[in-house]
Every structure is written in C-alpha cells, then in structure tokens.
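Structure first, sequence second, as always.
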C-alpha cells in the first residue's frame, strides 16, 4: 500500500474500490472528525480553481488543519530550490503535502525526500490522479460496472494529464476507450483512434471532452480554437437524443469544447464531477493519512 499518490498506478483496484465506498459515504457529509489534528499543506506552482479548493474543502470537511502556500510569495521565488522548500515544509510536520507543478515527475521526486504523504494535484502533461479517480467514480455511479462500456476521450489528449490518468484507470476497469481529436492531438498508443467526432458519438456511452492545453504547446498546432471547435465541439445537434453522458474536467472552453445547450443538458455530468471530486478527495486523504 503506497503512502503517496503520485500516479494512478499507486493504487490497486481493491484500494480504489475501498476509496469509492468511503467516498459514497462522504458524498452528503458536511463535517466529520476523521482527520482532526492532522495537518495538510496545499502547494500549487501552477494555477488551479477546482482542484485546490476541492482539496481544501475535502480536508476541512474532515476537520484537518489546512495551510495554503502562496507560491508567488514563497521562498521558491527567492531562489530556494523546490527540494529545500519541501524539506522545510516537511519539517513542520504535515501529514500530507498536495503538490501541483508544471514539470512532470516533481511529486514523485518529492515523495522520496519527505515524511508526509505526497499527493499529486497535476504534474505537467503527466498525471492528475485525483481527477482520474473522480472521473472513474462518476462513471461507475452512472453505469455500475464499466466492463465493455464505451468511453470516448475528445481533444488535446497528447498534452493532457487528465487523459493519461483516465486512460490508465478506464482500461484497468475494462472500459473500451476511443481517442478522438485532430492527428496532432493524438498520442502514440495502441488504443483505437478516430478524427471523426460523429463516429465517436455513435460509438460512445460517455464522452470525456478536454480543454486544448495551449499553455503546453511550444508552437501553435491548430489555426485557432474556433477551427478546433468546428470539428470537435460537442453540440446538441450532434448528440441529438442519444443516451450518452458528457463529462469535462474543467475549465471548459465554453462553445469550443461543448456548447451551451449540452452543458445545460441533463446528460452533462460536469458539475456532478465537481461535487464527486470533494467526496473522492476526502476518501483519498483519509486513505493516505494513516495513524502513525
Ligand atoms: N483542470 C485540469 C488540469 O489541471 C484540466 C485542464 O486544465 O484542462 O489538468
């Protein structure tokens, strides 16, 4: 049993199912005392709206103390190395340090230097394990068993850490995954791929749409987001009355990734993902922070 969560593979299937059953209990809880007296540090070197607040709410609902480190004001901006910052934070005795960093691999490396549990809140284009887990939880909520369920992932898959975490988990839970996007957004993998959103919609029981990760493009790889939208925006016109669920990790490029009508449709699980995210993160914190 790993003390850290830097990659979805740190958790085996049994642990994931245990976390999900705990998360189900936490879904409608406002306040518990499970982590009373525990200290959690959030350190985000990259922007975040949902993940950071979701972790903070999760920790507070379990009565942990939470410190949010404002990186712009921290010593890293005065030239302290990341490792010294982490070692200093660790010396203050946190039970978990939640890290987001623009470089792939940072949480994994930090986990070797600290006593606290390291939780990866997104590292470069590599992994976003808690997003992957909350996506998996949401899909299991609507489908029950995922074996044979058809899930299409649409967009900038090559640059998406969410896609990496989703693909690892979905394939492990035996869903059929189809990757959809323009050729330069598709990674090299043996998984089935298509350039046609229409074909993907015909195939899928659920679609996970992704934001174009322009911050990770060294050269603009598509003429414009509007051009991307022409071929890959999920619209009401395309999904019609099909029995299909629509997901997105956020932030959504509204009317580029998904149109207004689909976002407001009952088949959109986007806000349910956010709600589930708090419960799943509560369960992850509880699972990783064990009695010492
Ligand atoms: N919020 C997700 C992430 O941090 C997805 C995105 O930014 O597009 O990776």
């Amino acid at each position: 049993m790993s003390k850290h969560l830097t990659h979805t593979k740190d958790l085996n299937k049994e642990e994931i199912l245990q976390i999900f059953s705990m998360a189900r209990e936490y879904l409608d809880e406002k306040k518990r005392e499970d982590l009373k007296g525990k200290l959690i540090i959030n350190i985000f070197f990259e922007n975040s709206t949902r993940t950071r607040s979701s972790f903070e709410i999760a920790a507070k609902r379990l009565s942990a103390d939470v410190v949010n480190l404002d990186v712009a004001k921290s010593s890293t901006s005065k030239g302290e190395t990341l490792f010294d910052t982490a070692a200093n934070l660790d010396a203050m005795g946190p039970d978990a340090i939640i890290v987001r960093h623009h470089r792939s691999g940072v949480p994994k490396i930090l986990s070797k230097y600290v006593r606290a549990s390291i939780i990866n809140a997104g590292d470069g284009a590599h992994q976003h394990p808690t997003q992957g887990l909350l996506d998996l939880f949401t899909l299991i909520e609507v489908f029950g068993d995922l074996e044979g369920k058809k899930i299409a992932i649409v967009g900038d898959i090559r640059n998406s850490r969410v896609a990496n975490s989703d693909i690892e988990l979905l394939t492990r839970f035996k869903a059929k995954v189809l990757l959809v996007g323009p050729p330069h957004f598709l990674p090299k993998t043996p998984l089935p791929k298509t350039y046609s959103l229409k074909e993907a919609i015909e195939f899928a029981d659920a679609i996970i749409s992704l934001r174009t990760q322009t911050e990770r493009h060294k050269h603009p790889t598509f003429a414009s987001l509007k051009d991307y939208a022409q071929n890959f925006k999920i619209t009401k016109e395309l999904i019609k009355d099909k029995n299909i669920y629509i997901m997105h990790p956020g932030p959504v490029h509204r009317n580029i990734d998904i149109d207004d009508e689909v976002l407001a449709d009952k088949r959109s699980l986007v806000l349910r993902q956010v709600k589930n995210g708090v419960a799943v993160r509560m369960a992850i914190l509880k699972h990783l922070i064990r009695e010492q």
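Margin note: Residues 122, 128, 161-162, 211, 249-250 surround aspartic acid (CB under 6 Å).
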